[in-house]
Amino acid sequence: MHFNKFVLAAGIAAALSSSAMAADMTVGFSQIGSESGWRAAETSVTKQQAETRGINLKFADAQQKQENQIKAIRGFIAQGVDAILVAPVVATGWDDVLTEAKDAKIPVVLLDRGIDGPEDLYLTSVASDQVKEGAVAGGWLVETVKDKPCKVVELQGTVGSTPAINRKKGFEQAIAGHSNITIIRSQTGDFTRSKGKEVMEGFLKAENGGKDICAVYAHNDDMAVGAIQAIKDAGLKPGKDILVVSIDGVPDIFAAMVAGEANATVELTPNMAGPAFDALAAFKKDGTVPPKFIITESKLYTPADDPKGEYERRKGLGY
Amino acid sequence: MRASGAAMSIGKLGRSAVGESAFRMEARGVSKVFGAHRALDHVDFGLLPGEVHALLGENGAGKSTLIKILTGAYQPDGGEILVDGAPVVLNSPLHAQTFGIGTVYQEVNLLPNRSVAENLFLGHQPTRFGLVDRRRMERESRGLLARYGLDIDPGSELGLHSVAVQQIVAIARAVQLSGKVLILDEPTASLDRDEVRRLFEVIANLKREGLAIVFITHFLDQVFALADRVTILRNGKLVDTCRLDALTRTELVRKMLGKDISFSGSTSLKTERPTTEVLLNFENFGRRRSVRPFNLTVHKGEVIGVAGLLGSGRTEMARIMFGIDPADEGRATMKGAPVGLRSATEAIALGFGFCPEDRKADGILGELSVRENIVIALQGKLGWFRALNRDEQLDLAGQFGEAMDIRAASLDMPVKLLSGGNQQKVILARWLATDPAFLILDEPTRGIDVGAHAEIVRTINRLRDDGMALLVISSEIDEVVAYSSRVVVMRDREMVAELRGEDINPGVIVQAIATHGETAHHEAAT
Amino acid sequence: MNRMALRNVVNTQTVALVGVLLLNWVLFPGFFRIEWQDGRLFGSLIDVLNRGAPVAILAIGMTPVIATKGVDLSVGAVMAMAGAVAASLVVAGYPAWIAVSGALALGLACGIWNGILVALLDIQPIIATLVLMVAGRGIAQLVTEGSIVTFSDPTLVFIGTGSFLGFPMPVVIAFALMVLVTLAVRKTAIGLFIEAVGVNRSAATLAGIRSRLLLIVVYSISGLCAATAGIIVAGDIRGADANNAGLWLELDAILAAVIGGASLLGGRFSIPMSVVGALIIQAMNTGILVSGFPPEFNLVVKAGMITLILMIQSPLAGHILGWFGRGKRGAA
Predict the structure, then answer these.
(1) Helical (H) or strand (E) element with B369
(2) Membrane-spanning regions, if any (chain C) (predicted)?
């Protein structure tokens, strides 16, 4: 499946799957909240996906609180929904409420994040592979610079957060064995645009005004957008003097690509719900048990992949 | 008891006259220096078991420094401290406690939102299975409180009780923890007459039990009523230690001041000068749940004394007049024109001034300088945008500081470092700087030393002679008699009498306060 | 005024700032290098000023609030709201001056709201401003619908990233605000009244100060400063990030004021010293960035340095230093 063209894909999926089966399905969705643009996009894509499949989606925003999520799930159970989607805000403390769902014979699908608990409490979990995201970004850099020496500065996510650890790990795995590529500086930009800009400013000063930097690897696009501004302020050309590679695929990074200021991004698809609905439909239809972990694709986008079109497609999703 | 026997056998003062072991606690030649200032200069002080020993002196005489050395809060720069004849080094008040030395301050240093029992046992609660044994604690508290004549619920919150009860709880705690020496630092300053009497009974009992008690106060009556011996300090030096039965009041005051002071007792100093020019007229002026409506005419150049017990409505009357708690009944006129008096700012704009009773809570701006404390009311009157610059402030502060004889090392030092008497003078200076027409003074002489006391009384007379109208609230009846041309008496939140001429004498005033005054007594005492 | 100015130049705050800057120089020899590039100054020192500007502006508003024995926890959220409003207005096609005025008006309204809760309803400042701290960010998220509202309005971008006489605009704005607010409180009686209310509100009121009005004014200034900082931060990244703009900056602003010598118990304050406090915090941040420490050490290093600075400023240290200096004067 091509998640990048999810609207189209979803339409096809809806057409292919038994619409009579899906149409009478009611699914409850307990979302974490709207702490980031990506999260907002996930919410709107999930709603779109439900609509195109004719699924009756009951949406509950937990405002970053587990207790709200548990309340919402209990509510869904009481309403007798056919399935429940949960994007769990934390990893622990789900055993009781998911057991209640299990006892009520309502399948649960985890979106985007995992939980610490028995695997039989949920049907499947749909998530990206963060290590792979880092590896795709690193692989792109390896192919792009080839044998030329390249000093990389890294903008990490929030210290200690899982995506920061995994995306760092994946990138390092990809460049291992390529001694021409070295990470010379690595600092946290807290996943935010302003910190990304501030940290990049520091890197530029510390590395001879940026002349010694060949590429910047940012754990998310927001920090990369900030770094691009810092590079421009320092009188250099982002995308040319310093390569910019990042992860997420938010609209603004495609806009930067259109302007020639960003070189690559690895998409973290907001369409976690599509595969989840597919798995649920198959399960409801003939009891097909999906694999326990459905991994979404980590697709690489470069300026060759119609960044303008990608921007247009994404900008309405609430990123 | 051996202790009381020793007390009887001591003839006169001085440790040379006495066997050294007779002193429960002794300071020998202690000195304390702050920068260039010698706060204590080779002072000897001996405390016998079973005596109440008053410690007297003017501002800056070194009383509080000596107390802080005796309780371990300060380390002396010279001399030594002995407990039961043995030299000791007291590192802190807590350390001093282990030598049996306990202290109770004017502001009770307990936890008002915890129970009486918890306050008594804080830090050494009886435990059972590692947990606080609340029932035992309350039982023991009840017994302990009974010894002090207190019949209160040990489980009740301390802050709900009167200051006097809190003071006695503090004493009970200190005695229980320490047991040899009890230092009482102005314990009566915020108590009314009944409460003082009750406290004195407690102290007398402790004395009979052999405790050595140091008593610091500004009230000479209380010194004569309670103390056996007195030590007088002046300018950091020891003036004398002597038995009180060998001393007259005049002699004592002379020792303290090194001079005769111009007022004493009830000899009337006021010059009866009836004025006719009406400044203010309060008609049926009152506020619900505060003070019943009253009528009062204030003339220029007169002092109206306000007498009454604590809780009689005397302070409330002042607050209504000054607009802090605006009146909801009646009307006020100034020179015939109606005035609103809806806020302090409004009253000040009309030329009112108000020295509140609680100097620390409502009067001084502790962290700010003497200069800023003096100019603040005038600046408030001028408003936000007509700022007095630093030089103007210094001029004003210098001028009014001098007029009030404020003793401060610098006009830029924080006012909280001044003594109580000097702080009170600062607040008076603050209002004089606004050139007020009507000044309300609520207990202007409470808790300050004799010298500052006389200074303030002189100031009241001077201002009156200059044509200002003053309303002075005081529980010192002699004082009220001395300067008032009229005395109004408050009782049960009502103005019950307005006395003039011959009627202004202690007998009549006390009678006016006391008639049907039993309820007020009870309210104040419990 | 001259004597005060002299006394204020050499003190623990400026010594601490110089110390942190020198430490940065030891860790990164190019720290003091400043170049002229594209019509503007460029260098780590300029970064310290530029990145320190938002917290400095918050501290300019926070300091008088703290001096009244209050605290304004809502400034971070007000930043987010102001940025969100400004960005949404320009994206909706309104001219920049309307966007800026709208954001400032919102900051003022927030300040007045806080002031009313504190002054008229007598709610403790920490609780009163907590309301807006929590609700404000939520409102900002509602305005931006949870996403970063990106814009390219040249005026807003100029406020965040432009330069004037070679200095970044945020620095120019922060400096102008510092001078303006300092003069406003010190050339009038407002500064004295703020200190009086902070030290003893009851006594100040009895001395004729309109303490309620004063409190509302002080919180309003804080709200305006927060809105200004919010516009700058949005302009800097060409977008309003409701989730992250100003996040936890209220704590940095409080810290800056405390490093600047203000006591949370109210009383004495100095706006320039609070700005120095903000620069000390930012000098540490920038120093960590250029020094190449692993990010895991950021918070530990920062906490250690701040503890050291606060210890040097503590009364106990003052006493100890006092013994070596002119000696101590105390009351008998």
Answers:
(1) none
(2) 9-28, 48-66, 73-91, 164-185, 213-235, 247-266, 273-293, 299-324
